[in-house]
Amino acid sequence: MRHEILAPARTKRLHGITSRGSCLVVVGPPTRYPVTDKLPRGTQARMMNAAVFSEKIGYPLNTHTIINAAQLQRIGAGGVFGIGHLWDGFQELMQLMRKWHTGRGLPWVMIASREYNSTRAKHPCEHWHIAHHQPRELRSDWTAQLPVWTEEGTSAADDSISEHNAWRVTSRWPGGRGPDNLAAYLGKAEPGRIKLHGKWQENTLKPRPDKYGGEGPVEGKRFRISRSIDRAAQAKAGFAGPYPLTRHEASPSGPHSAPYEAGA
Q1: What is the model's pTM?
Q2: What are 155-171's pLDDT values in tens digits?
Q3: Which of 63, 133, 210, 232 could tie 59 with a disulfide, CB 3.0–4.6 Å?
Q4: pLDDT in tens, 99-119
Q5: Domains of the chain: which residue ranges?
Q6: Considering only CA atoms, which of 187, 233, 238, 230 is closest in space to residue 209?
Q7: Which phi and psi angles does 53 have, rounded to 5°?
């Protein structure tokens, strides 16, 4: 079966974009989308449960695609990066990615996180981490598709990285392999310490507090979990994730008090 390379929908670039340091800032009503500087409490556990469930259904999260969205907007890339607000562009890109996978007979199994780094970082300002399931034999097709969506070609030395490092695809990630470890990395912008009843304390709902970073202003929703592995899909399958989502579940007498063993 022959698969066409998908082109993004034609969009119009919005006016009113200015720069702040090396980041682009959209000038307009500040309330168009809510702005947050970190992930909500419990997000990392939700991501890790979804990752464990992806293994259970036979489509483990095994591919990590990183998009340096702010850089692509800054250099004037078209397509989803010419929409104006990066949240709009993110939603459009998710639709293109979903159609690319389902068009090849694959379920869309994915978690994604939008992060922010300082202008001195390798991926400055807003960038996107997308963990998804993809058979190895489709990797070359995938890296051929990304230049169409980003308007940045592959590196001459490595076709898993773009020419100017605006995107990359990898099957390895910091801290070791495994879908739940990748999910922990994507959930690192959840705070490790929170303020409850006027006092600062450890966030007991963050399973991997050793993973941190990515905090900063992001407009629109900061993360997404595909329907194929979200909480509704897990509940329908009778799957109880190993990572607690509430303080009750995290308590010594809660349903998640027993240690989780991989493969159980």
Answers
A1: 0.83
A2: 888 889 998 888 999 98
A3: 133
A4: 999 999 999 999 999 999 876
A5: 17-241
A6: 187
A7: -65, -35
